[in-house]
Amino acid sequence: MIEVTCFHCGQAVLISPDVTRCPECGANLRRLIDSEQAIAYFYARASAFADADNLVHAVQEVQRGVTFQPCPELNLLGAILAKRLHRLDQMRQFVAAVPVDSPLRSEAEWLLRANQAQTHLPEAVPTDADLLPPRAGRDRRPQAESSARIQPVAWVMLAALMLVGGWWGWNRLPPDWIDQFEIAAVAEPRIDLAPAPVNAATQPAAPAATATFAVVAPAADSPAAPILLPTPTIALDLVAAPTVAQPLAAQNPAVVAVIAESQPFDLAAFLRAEGRSDLAALPVLARREGERLVLEGTVESVQQRADLEGYVKLAPNVGEISLLNVRVRLPATYTVQAGDSLWGISMNLYGEPGMVEEIYAANRGVMNSPNALSVGMVLAVPEKP
Predict the structure, then answer these.
(1) CA distance linking residue 277 with residue 330, whole number of Å
(2) What pLDDT, in 10s, does the model give residues 255-298?
(3) Model pLDDT for residues 155-174, shown as the tens digit of each residue
(4) Residue 8, CB-side half-sphere exposure with 13 Å CA sphere
(5) 106 CA to centre of own chain
(6) pTM of the model
(7) How many CA atoms lie within 13 A of 147 on its CB side?
(8) Cα 64–71–115 angle (5° rounding)?
(9) CATH for the 333-380 domain, from 3.90.1150.10, 3.40.190.120, 3.10.350.10, 3.40.50.620
């Protein structure tokens, strides 16, 4: 806890990055927490979780810390924890977040290179001798030497068998096999691909899937007799079925992957589990796109948008958050709460203290002075110029 003096009520109170409001008057004292105190707070919490072997919560504390106050120390610690969890993409994100001019940048890059070198170590390729079990009383080297001596003998025996087989086959050929080969080559018929004429009066029409071809016999002066071949037909059941066009998504695996990864995210249930029912009631929806969480909707103040971003970053398996479509629509009125001041209301609604005079000017009818606030008072909310 950090001891500070409340600028609203003047009391010395204890606050932390998780408890930023004054316990006496309820004022938001987040700006009184400097960067070194915030870094030490989250670093100690992450280290405590890591010592307890709870690496998941340790990484979540680091993410909360870099959201509250980015620093190289927390990013390097997050990279080390992500490496232990084998979350390589998350480790690269932590390393990339370390500034280039930081002294810890070289250590973060070394951590990344060491992980890549460990991932790409070549595996030992087993040889044939390694795959064979050794015989009893012998090692593998004598077996390899004996195999090397046997191989030349096997080649010689194979060559001898080939010679004997060739000689036997040559003797089995008839004496006039060359003349018969020349006659068969001359008598080879030519196939005319044009359909043969069919007499429609004597022969019924053939199905559409049947094709008839004429076989042309050799010339009259050829010594070989004509050879008749059967007329080829195509069976109806062999005709290919028409190809049905597949959808574009089925032909493109990348499109299928994007559609599968785009899933809704129950933002309201997550915020209620984190104890923020007020944020869960906002008209904001979320959906996942891989490790990216996209939010869409409206909030009523800049502080609500900042709180929503801080809690959503704690969601599991979220590497990036998009709040481009989360709009701030100020309400028409604001009801004063316990511990409110015009400075705090300006910070809550607009995200800056520069609207104090505008709020007071728009509510002179109910306020006698800038400090004349009471619980339950309804103030008009002016538009930011």
Answers:
(1) 19
(2) 444 444 457 788 889 889 888 888 899 999 998 888 888 899 99
(3) 888 888 888 888 777 777 66
(4) 23
(5) 28
(6) 0.34
(7) 8
(8) 85
(9) 3.10.350.10
